[in-house]
Amino acid sequence: MSNNSPVPNNIFEAKSWPFEEAKRVLARLQGKAPEKGYVLFETGYGPSGLPHIGTFGEVLRTTMVRKAFQMLSDVPTRLFCFSDDMDGLRKVPDNVPNKEMLSKYLNLPLTKVPDPYEKFESFGHHNNAMLQGFLDSYGFEYEFQSSTDWYTSGRFDPTLRLVLQHYDEIMAIMLPTLREERRATYSPFLPICPRTGHVLQVPMVEMHPERDSVVYKDPETNQLTEVQITGGNCKLQWKVDWGMRWKALGVDYEMSGKDLIDSVKLSSQICRVIGGRAPENLTYELFLDEVGQKISKSKGNGLSMDEWLTYAPQESLAYFMYQSPKKAKRLYFDVIPKAVDEYLQHVSKFESQLPLEQHDNPAWHIHGGQPHAAEVSLSFNILLNLASVVNAEEGSILWGFVKRYVPGADETSMPFLAKMITYAVKYYQDFVKPTKQYKVPNQMERDALQRLHDELADISFDSSAEDLQAIVFEVGKQFAFTDLRQWFGTLYEVLLGQTEGPRMGSFIALYGIAETRALISEKLN
């Protein structure tokens, strides 16, 4: 993704949230580039499981802020996707093969656990490869970073020494936040047992900053064991690790979910204690399932990434992620059509907007400054309703109507529309068709429908959607409906078998006047 759209002189007046976040990062610099020579954006990933919709959202949103920053400043930027792959395997995931084999390797660092898929050097390497493949498939620009690599190469060593030197201050931050039984075993350092290779959660008996080591009591042998904190012989508890990483890498911006608010505060304190500066942080709200419960990987509620992309294009998911990150949103199948159509509306407006308006258009952020031109003014909802009326089993039946509505349209010249048609049929088959329930109209509703049927008889077959919409309005006004919404509700429930529907003028133009009259007759009879 690149930024080739013209930069308006008043770009600092852009109000969209990625620009507001980018301005915070710019203010942090106080007019000068960081000593490291670049601004560092970071996202974190725990590789005990496969990438998921939250991973996509965090990297996408961070990329949007990074792109906005690049419009405001010439300071170079980098994005690190950091994998905490030196963490110990605490439990066997439910969704992997060879679970019995994995159970033998509990508490080993993930990069020392054999790959249950038997494809990579370790389970950690497997999940890291899945993450990178996942990010690459969506065109993200990032640099992958491995916790194991940073610890074992010694690049974290200078900052680990600072953690040891400030051990008591860090303990004073952490202990009040822990339950009593956890306090008894807590230490910022997790030694890698020389005997078993396990990542141990044990208290420290002695600290020796002068020789970069700590001493703990082996939980199995009761022997005092001294290990170096450098060279990958220890890792840190994750909240301490997070603060240490911010200092070591010089992270300038990282966002995180609402469930990590307290962790951000603690890690920020720890970062300051060891002489660092915590990054600018955006706390985003969590996604909710269909009944308003927080989405959980372990519960499997809500909507997965693959499920969304079965029914709608990736751009619509990016739009859903773009919207109001600080507000909780339901992430379920029924939000998909609305997200697709709102995305399409923003794309269709882009070309006619002034440069500053374009930079605040979600389409600019979704496409890194280069949204493609809208192919055609057909919405996802109208395709969905066309599929419903003709009970479509496959996309070819919809193309017959579309080609009449848009002469020259085909799968090659309009690839995005082709995808939309495929998605609409799939969505109709799985979600609309099973719930269709046609209303039997009362006498007034029958009279109104008959009037619409008759009015359409005198209309030219090539009438515009606006003219057809006006006729539908006029017919509704002639009858004693509470309001026009009741009239349109009648059309949707009687003709389509659902409570919501498309703009009727556009639908009639697409479906055809003669076909619409036949549909009305069928339902009235």
Structural class: mainly alpha
**Strand percent estimate:** 5-15%
Calculate Rg over CA atoms. 29 Å
**Strand segment tally:** 12
Q: What does this entry look like structurally?
A:
By secondary structure, the chain is mainly alpha-helical. It folds into four domains: 11-174 and 240-284, 3-Layer(aba) Sandwich (Rossmann fold), CATH 3.40.50; 289-366, no CATH class; 380-435; 443-524, Arc Repressor Mutant, subunit A (Orthogonal Bundle). The chain is built from 23 helices and twelve strands. The strands form five sheets. The chain has a three-stranded parallel β-sheet. A three-stranded antiparallel β-sheet has the order 5-6-7, with no helix packed on it. Strand 9 (253-257), helix 10 (261-273) and strand 10 (280-284) form a beta-alpha-beta unit. Helix 7 runs antiparallel to helix 10. It is elongated and about 95 Å long. It starts with 16 loop residues before the first helix and ends with a helix. The model has no long low-confidence stretch (mean pLDDT 93).
